[in-house]
Amino acid sequence: MDIAELSDRILNGDRRALARAITLVESGRKDHRALADALMVKLAGAGRQALRVGLSGTPGVGKSTFIESFGMMLVAQGLKVAVLAVDPSSARSGGSILGDKTRMERLSRERSAFIRPSPSQNHLGGVARRSREAVALCEAAGFDVVLIETVGVGQSETMVAEMADLFLLLLAPAGGDELQGVKRGIMEIADMILVNKADGDLKATATRTCADYSGALRLLRKRPQDPDDFPKALTVSALEEAGLEAAWGEMQSLAGWRREQGHFEANRARQARHWFAEEIRHSLLARLETPWARDRMAVLADEVAEGRRGIGEAAQDFLTGLGS
Amino acid sequence: MDIAELSDRILNGDRRALARAITLVESGRKDHRALADALMVKLAGAGRQALRVGLSGTPGVGKSTFIESFGMMLVAQGLKVAVLAVDPSSARSGGSILGDKTRMERLSRERSAFIRPSPSQNHLGGVARRSREAVALCEAAGFDVVLIETVGVGQSETMVAEMADLFLLLLAPAGGDELQGVKRGIMEIADMILVNKADGDLKATATRTCADYSGALRLLRKRPQDPDDFPKALTVSALEEAGLEAAWGEMQSLAGWRREQGHFEANRARQARHWFAEEIRHSLLARLETPWARDRMAVLADEVAEGRRGIGEAAQDFLTGLGS
């Protein structure tokens, strides 16, 4: 299938074409990269826009259940929902946080939903580019909401926030008044905190935890892209499907405000610049992975290790050989 | 002063020459870099070797007091001790974890001790290269032990471990049985854990904490560079100057074993290779910081942000222009 045809089918909402295109952007082959590039430019021309919602939560907070309940609620409102996972750890474990669709059984059976497991990649930079392009593909295929899920591992949260319009942090009710050791850096990128499991015995704890986070969020420095009452914390129960409409209402209200104020588009443009710079850094460093580069570095490294050459001078020597 | 003279003076243990050389390696100027390189090669030829001891501990564990007491104990044994700080956060705060010498008043007055505050740098890579060269300079100046201190911020601990022969983690007694949230990655690079404040009311807690860490260390995967009983945890009291000789004995015993087994030299060679590769990556990415590169990236990034060009193709265009 050529790019024009693939593009047309995606724009027509053909799910098999979408899946195929995602496989294409996930490919490491050089000719595939060129095709993927052409496809992305072609689809960008269509100008379709979904709401890209990043979602992070450590195992145990009920993320799968939340995505399922939240996704079903959106579908019930007539919206089309895509779920993608960004999982930098899957390279090591060989597995995937969205390993199979049984995690979201109901949602995966919906015709208006599309669930794509995360690819096994061995490079975070590669994961990022591919995931971001997969998001844009879902957008072109006519999905209204693209949920980009990640576990809180290393820099995956920052990465997902850098490809989302909104970033949600899903947390569990905390015993005591400690804030579950949520890293300040993560708090600072969250647009909304959702305290899940606000049901049964945990309901009161969830409410208290939510108040704690509300307080913590108010202490953070105000960001220009936030209206007065954001970022905010809410309680939800994915299990009892409670609070999901309210949370969705808040997301829409935030996204709407950002659209009106110009922050929405400005953010997407900033993200494109960010990922472009990342792509360049990635390509530049990839030049160190050729057989010549590896061999030459090994020879020079020995000379440096033996104290025969200075590290800076040897590095310059290498870079000259590299053609830099 | 030329490099030959500077080198001679350092080898003669001239402290002012040492301080001057450290300022030279800390300089970002290109001509200074070349001089620093020449100096490092010259001094490496002398083949002097100190024991490089990395030390990490978050604020509040009594790190300054420990360094002072431990340093004084070494000095009393007739050893020369240098203390360097690696503080990637100082760039932001403008301050320095070794801001002045009043933190280690007694040690700073000792003729056999040399204390150097961390430079304010704005790049972790730069900090690393400079710190590592400062360590080598102290070594050449005849110091027997070089303590490389860091706070547990971001990747500074891994960085310090990569320039040390031994890596110590200084911890405070923990209330309860939780292990103070010490990151597993940090546990895995520690050769010894020292539980400080094993004095007064905290003595029993320190002993219990130490036992907890001993247990945790035993659960880690065995590393080839460790004899059977390492890594290990010990209690010390920097305040009462207790346990310091025992800790030093353990350090010597570990270093001795590693020397006999060839791990000591192998580790240093591996570190040199690591820093050489880092230097190359750093130099390569520095090419993106020229005015031409910044301007060109900005133009292309706009085209990418507007969806007019593919990210991969635009990146290739940029790299071609860069001469890569």
TrEMBL record, chains A, B:
Keyword field: Hydrolase
Enzyme class: hydrolase
Keyword Hydrolase recorded: yes
Example of a GO MF term: GTP binding
Keyword Hydrolase: yes
InterPro entries in alphabetical order: GTPase_ArgK, P-loop_NTPase
Gene Ontology CC terms: cytoplasm
EC code: 3.6.-.-
Family: Belongs to the SIMIBI class G3E GTPase family. ArgK/MeaB subfamily.
NCBIfam families: lao, PRK09435.1
Protein known as: Putative GTPase ArgK
Organism phylogeny: Bacteria, Pseudomonadati, Pseudomonadota, Alphaproteobacteria, Rhodobacterales
